[in-house]
Each structure stands twice: as C-alpha cells, then as structure tokens.
C-alpha cells in the first residue's frame, strides 16, 4: 500500500479554499439531485444493462477492465452510469453518520497529517505538493513506467468537472433526465385520472335510487 498525503497547505489556506468551495458544491449537488431524481421515481435504470449490451457494452467494459478512465473518456452511457452512482454512493457518504471528517481547528488538521506520518512507513508515503512536484515524481513513487504525463499538474477545476470536460455527454444525459421528468409526470397524471374515474364510479354506484 502506498499513501499520497496532500499536506501542502496550511490550515488557514485549506479553510479559505473549503469555505469558497462549499457554496459551489451545494449548487452542483442540488442540480444533480433535481435532474437525477427523474431516474428514481420509476426503475428506469433497469434499462441500462440491456441498452448497454445493445450499444457495445461501454459501461460493462469500464466496470470490468477499469479502462478507459472515466475522467478522460466518458460517453453518454458511462456518464449516465457515473451520475446515477453518485446519487446512490457518493452523496450518501457525505451524509450522517458517514459524513467525511472535517477538522474543526488547526490542531485537528495538523494532528491528522502527523498521525499518517507516524503510521505509514516513509518509503510508502509521498507528501504531494502540486506547486513543486512533477508527474514524473508521482509516477516513480507509484512505480508507473513509462510515465504518461509530464511536468507539473495543471490547476484543476473542482466543480462541474464532467460537464466541462464532456459537454456532449452531459447535454445528452441531462436532456434524457429532463425528458424522464416529463414522462414521470404524464404517467402520474394518467394514474391519477384512472384512480379518480374509479372513485367516481364507486360513488355513483353508492347513490340511492
């Protein structure tokens, strides 16, 4: 086991970044929750497997082989699977009682990193600093040869990542999810009409002659 420790920021720098990130995260999660809710009212995701087989098994290939990385290649089918998985696994992990641990003060923040340093052998620990470390150093630590990347990593965007990187897949999946909201609404209306008609007929039969 190898551990990459992201200890490059001070507590104050981390806290400032965290406070700036949370509002954007809330907006993104609300959007994903609203759009993805259309898949939860009825078991639409049951159609994913037969549809995946029909389209060449792109999802099955990623799940079984782990390649290509979904952060680098993500078509509509894989994007849909990944987003639905977020609702059932990732967002759940952010809710009590499994909420991700957040340090309350500088002492807790520093103690966490120090505990990792004391627990993990030095030859298995890499304290990664994206401002000075290169991808070659990371590959060397992970024993990845040849290294597929070069130089220092670019500054990452931490919200709406998949929407920015895969706009076609994002647009296709969001269109589908909004369309399913309409389908769900129409089905609910049809069910309501059937129920109302039945209630009216029963009420008519109960009227005295």
From TrEMBL:
UniProt name for this protein: ME1 protein
TM ranges: 21-47
Pfam families registered for this protein in UniProt: Sulfotransfer_4
Keywords of this entry: Membrane, Transmembrane, Transmembrane helix
Domain of life: Eukaryota
């Amino acid at each position: 086991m190898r551990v990459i420790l992201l200890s490059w920021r001070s507590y104050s720098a981390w806290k400032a970044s965290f406070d700036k990130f949370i509002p954007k995260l809330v907006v993104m999660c609300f959007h994903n929750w609203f759009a993805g809710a259309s898949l939860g009212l009825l078991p639409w995701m049951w159609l994913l497997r037969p549809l995946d087989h029909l389209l060449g098994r792109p999802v099955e290939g990623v799940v079984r082989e782990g390649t290509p990385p979904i952060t680098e290649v993500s078509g509509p089918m894989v994007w849909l699977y990944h987003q639905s998985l977020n609702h059932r696994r990732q967002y759940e992990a952010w809710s009590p009682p499994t909420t991700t641990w957040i340090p309350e003060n500088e002492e807790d923040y520093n103690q966490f990193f120090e505990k990792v340093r004391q627990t993990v052998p030095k030859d298995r620990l890499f304290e990664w600093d994206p401002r000075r470390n290169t991808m070659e150093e990371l590959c060397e630590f992970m024993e990845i040869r040849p290294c597929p990347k070069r130089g220092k990593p670019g500054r990452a965007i931490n919200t709406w990542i998949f929407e920015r990187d895969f706009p076609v897949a994002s647009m296709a999946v969001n269109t589908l999810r909004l369309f399913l909201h309409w389908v769900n609404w129409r089905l609910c209306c049809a069910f309501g009409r059937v129920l109302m008609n039945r209630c009216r007929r029963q009420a008519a039969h109960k009227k005295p002659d």
